[in-house]
From TrEMBL:
Keywords: Cell membrane, G-protein coupled receptor, Glycoprotein, Membrane, Receptor, Transducer, Transmembrane, Transmembrane helix. It comes from Exaiptasia diaphana. Pfam families: 7tm_1. It is found in: Cell membrane. It is a multi-pass membrane protein. GO terms for cellular component: plasma membrane. This is G-protein coupled receptors family 1 profile domain-containing protein. The chain crosses the membrane at residues 41-67, 79-104, 116-139, 160-182, 188-208, 252-275, 287-308. InterPro entries: GPCR_Rhodpsn (IPR000276), GPCR_Rhodpsn_7TM (IPR017452).
Length: 327
């Protein structure tokens, strides 16, 4: 889920050219490849291959738990969790196997530009939809905390699902169409459309996350203080409901922070490549694949954290596993 690029085939050379925001490399340059790259590629291919099945499996369980339960899928928060699980499921089902195939072909020198193009397009799609979903999720929490009356009257699971589908389609359509056009006419600007989408989404995430985190922290302290005194039952119930919403804020912030940590190697590598054009060939050949593997692994680690933190997701998965085992 971590690529902000698209690619095209340079027919005159027969090479695949990718406008990635990470160090570029020539996959056909077998002479200048460092010897250390081969065991590294083999390890990364094996790691992604092993992770692909549990990544797809656990995210499929989360989707199943939310979709099957009417009460869960009526919640906008749970719909967005399931939407994130969909993008992570695709990482395990499509992106990691494609990545393994790409590395295997590079190791055995049977590389084809179509393999690289397929991987780039898949990661472009998942990266875009994931970041947009994060933006929608933080905006949902912002409305729930900062404008509770509006949220209760207007925000439903069905509406959030429709909005998510629309934003997904718009993100994919605009990014791929614009990038394809620019690859042909303005290749140096090929990354711009996707970067605009990512930048706007990140700004929304930062604003909403910081705002609701501060509000939730302040109001949790007030509620804790008020609960020490005698209260009316209805007032107490309202405060309990607010605490539930604040726990969801904490879960959303945790997911965002964890995703940022997994993207951090890619961000650091991008900055180094942008500032230094004389990076060593070892760095050039190793960095991109290691960074992409980190981003792939977030699709496994974050759903595990999600399952451990949310009791109803954990219990739902447990029940599904019991159904599988037949006990």
């Amino acid at each position: 889920m971590a690529n902000n690029s698209t690619s095209f085939v340079d027919i005159s050379r027969g090479h695949a050219v990718c406008f990635m925001s990470v160090p570029t490399f020539d996959p056909y340059d077998t002479i200048n490849r460092p010897d250390s790259i081969y065991p590294n590629w083999a390890f990364l291919a094996t790691l992604n291959g092993i992770a692909s099945l549990p990544t797809a499996f656990i995210n499929a369980l989360i989707i199943w738990v939310v979709v099957e339960n009417k009460n869960l899928r009526s919640s906008a928060f749970n719909v967005l969790l399931a939407s994130l699980a969909v993008t992570d499921f695709l990482v395990g089902l499509l992106i990691e196997p494609t990545y393994c195939l790409l590395l295997a072909c590079l190791l055995n020198e049977c590389y084809s530009p179509c393999q690289f193009t397929a991987y780039v397009l898949l990661t472009l799609a998942c990266c875009g939809t994931t970041v947009v979903t994060f933006a929608i999720a933080t905006a949902e929490r912002y409305l729930a905390i900062e404008h509770p009356n509006f949220y209760l009257n207007n925000v439903t699971g069905k509406r959030v699902l429709i909005a998510t589908m629309i934003f997904w389609a718009a993100t994919l359509g605009i990014s791929i169409a614009c990038s394809t056009f620019m690859n042909k006419n303005h290749p140096h600007l090929a990354k711009v459309p996707f970067m605009v989408v990512i930048s706007v989404s990140v700004l929304i995430i930062l604003y909403c996350t910081s705002k609701v985190q501060l509000t939730a922290y302040r109001q949790r302290k007030d509620i804790a203080h008020q609960q020490e005194s005698t209260q009316q039952p209805d007032k107490h119930q309202q405060q309990e409901n607010r605490l539930v919403e604040y726990k969801k804020v904490s879960m959303t912030v945790t997911i965002v922070v964890m995703s940022f940590l997994f993207y951090m190697p890619l961000i650091i590598t991008t900055v180094i490549e942008a500032l230094r054009k004389d990076v060593s060939r070892d760095f050039k050949y190793h960095a991109v694949f290691v960074c992409l593997t980190f981003v792939h692994l977030q699709s496994l680690i974050i759903p595990i954290i999600l399952s451990l933190r949310l009791s109803y997701i954990r219990e739902g998965i447990k029940n599904k596993l019991v159904c599988f085992t037949g006990n």
